[in-house]
Specification:
The protein has about 100 residues and is mostly beta strands. About 0% of the residues lie in helices and about 40% in strands. The N and C termini lie far apart (about 25 Å).
């Protein structure tokens, strides 16, 4: 993915303290809010299909609280969001 030409920042939301971007086939979701966790946070993406968590800074290994279920599968819908043709929802805990 490091050499992929595809990269796109789909969300920079100051109030939510969220950044979402695509690099290759991966979608990166960052919640920098110190208090607010978001349930069913809509994420726009280029490719339809199923997405899974690959890296989770809330995992106990990184000093987090382990609030993310790693076996969860996030399926896209044809609902466009943030100028992307597809989207899915995730839980994003605060840090």
């Amino acid at each position: 993915f490091m050499t992929s030409d595809h990269q796109y920042i789909s969300r920079k939301h100051e109030e939510d303290k969220m950044i979402v971007f695509e690099k290759g086939d991966l979608v990166f979701v960052f919640n920098f809010h110190c208090n607010n966790s978001y349930f069913d946070y809509r994420i726009g993406c280029r490719k339809p299909g199923m997405y899974k968590v690959v890296l989770d800074s809330d995992a106990g290994l990184f000093g987090g609280f382990g609030r993310i279920h790693h076996a969860a599968e996030h399926f896209t819908t044809d609902c466009s969001h943030d100028n992307r043709p597809h989207s899915f929802s995730v839980y994003t805990p605060s840090r």
